[in-house]
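note to self: the first set is below, dont mix up w the second
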Amino acid sequence: NLLKDYRSYCLTNLAPGTCKRYRSILDNFNRFLSTQPLILSKTADFSPREFEGFKAFRKGEGACNRTINSELIVVKMMFRLAVQWGYLRKNPMNGVGKLRIPTENPPQFLTEAQCHKLLSSCDAFLYPVFFTFLNTGMRKGELENLEWTDVDFDRRRIKIRVKDDWTPKTNEREIPINDPLFQLLKDQKASAGWVTPILKLCFTVSYVLLAPFVGPLSDAIPKGKVMLIANFLKVCAVFLMLVGVDPVVAIGIAGLGAAIYAPAKYGLITELLPAEKLVSANGYFEGTTVCAVILGTVLGGFLVSPLINQFSVPIAIWHLHNMVTNLTVGMLSLLALNGIATLLSFSVADSGARYPSHSFHPLLLCKQFFRENMILWKDQLGGLSMLVTTLLWGVGATLQLIVLRWANELLGLPLAQAAYLQGITAVGVIAGAILASRLATLSSAATLLPLGMVIGLMIPLMLAVDSVLWAGILLMTVGAVSGFFVVPMNALLQHRGCNLLTAGRSIAVQGFNENAGMLVMLTIYAVATATRIPLGMMIGCFAAIITIGMTVIYLAHQRNCSTDEVCENA
């Protein structure tokens, strides 16, 4: 009970880094107690003799005198509090002496040659970390909690200041920035804006490049087995991140798994359900998918939070010392989750649908894929729904990044809190998807086109919002309208695609076009960010793309309806 109360006291009154160090010390003390006779079952049984035994125990484990003395201070503090809390009448550690510390040698400093050798051994990720250490003398915790808002480029100063979840060991202070560090920080900040869209591009490119092949693969073997392969690739991607492979490569492999997974997942719906149930099924899938997005957003913020960073991974479990990162626990958590998803793939039911065998020659598949694209685009309802979803997916993927930047620059939110706004948007999408599954039908999908224009007109309102409350309300509303609009459009596209092609091939065509739209929009965003186009202008441009694009689509559909009987089915 005393150990439990002391840990709670530490969590309440001490900084996260200090709590992590104290927890390790208490674990050492608890390990010592486990070797002692059962007579030490109560705090009143402790005497100075036991603490002398603790010193000998730790010395036997190889701890130096200075470390043992530091641990005695923490344990003594616990027993001092035990007296205050009524566990004991007096502190049993009174009179327990410290170990003698040998005369200290003068501090040693790295020579210039050693500094160059250290930096030359760093990879692209660690180089700026150690370069900043060497040029500032910052503590590890200070660098871990450094944000761009702490760097004053005009005054060439780094501000070490108190954060909501972290307090520096010393008082707040400023560190001057020398010329080499100034240039490195400028380059880092310039690249920070386009790194995220580049990673997103690496994930998305597989949907486009592999589209001619993933559809036939999904139709050639049972879709449950395809999903198993896809999930295993995601496990491999997370593992590669853990062992230090470049994130671009790892994210690309995860994108490969996702590209294979999509035709199997959505193609299975069209094989198992009749057309009249596709809207409801898509509403359910959209809702569960967005729930996963919300969970991922919240879990991602949690896994990079200081709370998780307090935990260390035992060397017996993870001994790759080249991975100097606080994110190992979080990455191992993702590895476990993807592993569970892979195991669950074994339980996916087989629809029993089988398709004629075909050649897997790459050239023939590409030609066939081009013909399938033309078939779906030339179909009036299929082409309409694919044009709408391609436009919305492209702009939507970019707006996710814009929302993060908007929340940071205009609302003053850090990245972790800005990500929660994406979660709020996702809640709106779920609500819209649920409403669509209950109120919309496949035959009424085309009549919802004006909602696309409404979405475009709502986006510029972001520039008028200056509070987190109204930001949440606006984004939830945008999400709800988007969910209500996209679900019937997706169902219409799947229905037409399944009738004109096969289940897997139609989803591959859909994925190709939607993700090609995302690639184009993300490339535009990356270029706009690199050229430092103002945020307000970006928001206005993307809003105009949606509004004008949906208006043109709506007017073209109305003109076609006046001359074509297809509107009777729309």
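second set (the one i keep forgetting abt)
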Amino acid sequence: LSDCYTKSSDLALMNGVQALVRLLLEQSRIDKEKGLKTQGYVSGYPGSPLGTLDLELNRAKKYLNDEGIVFQPGVNEELAATAAWGTQMIHLYDQPKIDGVFSLWYGKGPGLDRAMDAIRHANMGGSSKLGGMLLAVADDPIGKSSTLAYQSEQSLISAGIPIFYPANVHEVVPLGLQAYQLSRYAGICVGLKITADTADSSAVVDLTSLRPKFKNLLNIENVHIQKHEPALDREETLFTKRLPASKNFIFQNKINKIIRNPKVKNLGIIAVGKACTETIDALESIGIVDPEKNGIGIFSCKVPWPLNAEEIKNFINGYKEIFVIEEKRGVVEEQVAHILYNHDQKPILSGKFDGKTGDPKGALLPHRTLLGHIPGVEMPHEFLSSNLSNNDCFWTPADWAWIGGLFDVLLPSLYFGIPVISFRSSKFDPEFTFDLMEKFEVKNTFLPPTSLKMMKSFNLYKSRDKLHLRTVGSGGEALGEELLNWGKEILNVGINEFYGQTECNLTVSNNGLIMKQKLGSIGKPVPGHKVKLMKDDGTFISKSDDEGEIVVQSNSPSIFSGYWNNDKETQKKIIDGWLHTGDYATVDDEGFFYFKGRKDDLINSSGYRIGPSEIENTILSLQEVEMVAVVGVPDELRGEIIKAVIVPREKSLLKNRNENLKYKIKEHVKQNLAAHEYPRLIEFVEELPLTTTGKIKRNLIRKNHKEVKNERKI
């Protein structure tokens, strides 16, 4: 168990607290190897998650004594900080026999607040050239064992103290050594943020990787602690010399790193501290094992403050959107915003603030909506029942964190007392879906349109005799004749299309048991809901086949009560007693609705307003096509023209332009729809960008549009 302190090579088990002790030992050993006569000093006040550091320092006393490191527990945090800073003054008043003292102060977040006067003086005064002063701050961001859910960055920044943030146990010693080196180089105190996840966890650490390589930098004059330096001079030194020197040190030593750098750049993620490993884990959990193949780059930010503008600009170059992931309040995001403000390239910046639509909107769903959903669930599933005669059993690939999985499947199943199958896959797999539904004799399922299209592509002709499906519901996009017919032949059941959104879910639906199925229709309003179509001028559609926005009367039983803390957006959503969905449709003489698309997805070309769904379904009917997405792209003459992005069934078609297939697709759409609805541009891709709920990211396709020269011939 002492290997973590004694060995210099091989592997050793250590926890986050032991890593701090090893940091002190390692700094002493490095100094000795360089011929420096230094000693160490550590003082502080215990508090979770560093509540056991004083105990571990006492247990390691023999090793500390061997390295000349003094552990002096503090009466309180400010006295400990004062003593730690005092070690940096030994050359000012005495003639010591040693070259310097490297000191470590430790305390939890509230203790940092208490000690800020001493710490602020220490940083203004500076550290010694061969000493260095670190502040190990124990952060408890979720209030696990503290009266405050603490974040230390703001306090350290107010004192002008750079912050190093180890993501795990492995990084504590290397980052700590870099922090000591920075303290000596720039004459500045350096914070070391230690969270509960790091302090409380253990890891097998490669001891040969503890020491980072340092870049030799020119010494800076007049940045270290001086005797009786005036207050204004100290302030000037900190902000005009020490902090710029710190930024340069961090940049030159590449402490912050680009760890994923794709050739095609869609989304750049800046992940701070432990959020970096958590982000990679999260991407893997949804099937993105290789982010670079998906156009995702990752910048690992180990020093959240201060950021070097040059390294941020180097990373963001070429990305359409930058997404900052950090815990609690935004520190890095605000700096990035300042850096990009006057920069030529300004990607969308998102994080705590959504760069596209403002702060994320939380829809408040009162308890009444749980019961209000029941008729909407009953319709597409032809009256769910716990009776033994039906013996229903529910499953969906939709995530339960999405309203489609939670309110349309899980909670209704519990309400009716029928079994619900629980399985979380990292990525939708059509073959596994068939096997699961057969094995567990699933009777009822909600399958998003993209899932159905992938299942059709996987199993085009072969009937699945072992399926026990009674009902299949689907909603979100129009399915089309080909997919509906495939469902009857392969799934042995009709697919009931329905419509809704989080704010007013399951308001229109089909029900094959009591309604005739009309091709392309999402059904009729569910009992209890009043649904109409409204023109852009605010009047209702009176003539069938005229297109309008779907609006739902605001007294519907499943409607939300508003956006959380956002009255302005709520008032935009509900106007004069009608909830505006932002989706467009038509209605026929019998009251059947036909979905056209989201307002943002509608294509305005030469005066025509065109929905993408019917074009996609027409193209999808061709055997050569596996998946397709249709969007509008800018055109000087027509306003917009139609572009089809296609995943071909034969992947060899990706290697060339395939003019014959493009011509076939265009003619097929002209013959089955209308001349103004054919795609003038066609692009073949390996896969389409999808949301976690299986919807096509048309906005991303529009952003990534690059037209091949001379492709537009008509």
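remember for set 2: The chain has a mean pLDDT of 89.
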